[in-house]
Amino acid sequence: MMIAQSSALKQAAPPAPELKRIGRFTVIRELGRGAIGVVYLVHDPIIDRQIAVKTFNPKLTQIERKKHEEQLINEARAAGRLSHPHIITIFDANTEGGLTYIAMEYLQGRELSRLLARQHPFELNDIATIAWKVADALDYAHRNGVVHRDIKPANIFMVGENQPKIVDFGIARSPNRIADQFAQPDDAPYTLFHNNILGTPTYMSPEQACGEPADARSDIYALGAVMYEMLAGRKPFQSRDTEKLLQMIALKTPPAPHEVNPEVPEALSQIVMKAMQKRPEKRYQHAHEMANDIKRYLVKGKRPQPAKAEARQGQEENAAPATGRRRLAWLAGLLALAGAAAVLAPRLLP
After folding, report:
1. 232 lies in some domain
2. pLDDT value at residue 179
3. Are 138 and 76 contained in the same domain?
4. Where residue 125 falls among pLDDT bands split at 50, 70, 90?
């Protein structure tokens, strides 16, 4: 009986990780995997702490690994040059034993995309705060020559209350990006998912949808699209047909968030629509401009409402005359008392 129970327990135990070690790191467990990559929780014996390591899916063939290896190295080089509280930190990148990997900070939380899929009830100020922090992180990346080119909810990791981290710089453009065989002299995008398009269709900018080069303003557009979804409760453009979706992104203008959701303040809605302008020159030219507008909205929202301020001022104005009248009445009574004393004093004296 005891043997049977022990056997059952062994069968119910989670399977051991396919890898025991990655370089110097000891694999603890798998955190997640996609078609190309796998992320493991590992222990670093040198610094004696847990970190995350991203490497290839073991099911990939050698040819497939070689094809995607450049993207993994590019992620390490792009994010590795950045140090910002709202950008994931890269510790190391290496190829050892035929396995290429990048070591990064271990984030505990969940992707923004999962929160949106579960219809997480974000407050308006929470949305603005998250967007402000992402815009500030993008501004820092842009000033250091890094353009993400794939900003979307799945690449914004929430590690705490309103604490976003930008992740996955696999297709980022950076000064130290290794040359690829598909790149054009003007750095036009190369094929990743469809024809000659680089990025994720739903959140990509019109220029990306048309297969044109993406710059910092493409990241600004994408952040606007993320804000749109958070505020309106739906994506700015939706279609199961990729070609139709790209045409909508390139040619159509979505209704403003406050027109979809009346609870959205028009001031916040205007920020989103400016970020999502079709022509790059009509958008915010720098991410710090967008961040500053969001910050102004947040600061303004913390001030007393005009109606309340006016009411309080009126009460103070009404209180002032009343106080003055009470003082005059008291003074008049005092003078009357003094006058009466002056009249009665001679009569009372012997």
Report:
1. yes
2. 40
3. no
4. very high
Q: What is the pLDDT of residue 326?
A: 59
Known catalytic residues?
150
Residue the block writes with tokens 């009248």: 325
Structure token digits, residue 305 = 């409402």
The answer to whether residues 30 and 124 belong to one domain is no
Q: Is the pLDDT score of 171 beyond 90?
A: no
pLDDT of residue 99: 84
Return phi, psi of residue 110, to 5°: -155, 160
Instruction: Please tell me the predicted confidence (pLDDT) of residue 72.
Output: 83
CATH number at residue 25: 3.30.200.20
Amino acid at 182: F
Neighbours of 174 (CB within 10 A): 21
Surface-to-core class of residue 17, CB atoms within 10 Å of its CB (0-12 exposed, 13-18 middle, 19+ buried) = middle
245 in any annotated domain: yes
Structure tokens at 88: 């994931």
Does 340 reside within a domain?
no
CA distance 64 to 1: 49
**Domains identified in the chain, total number:** 2
Domain that holds residue 58: 17-104
Task: List, in order, residues 6 or more apart from 335 with CB less than 8 Å away.
Answer: none
The answer to whether the pTM exceeds 0.85 is no
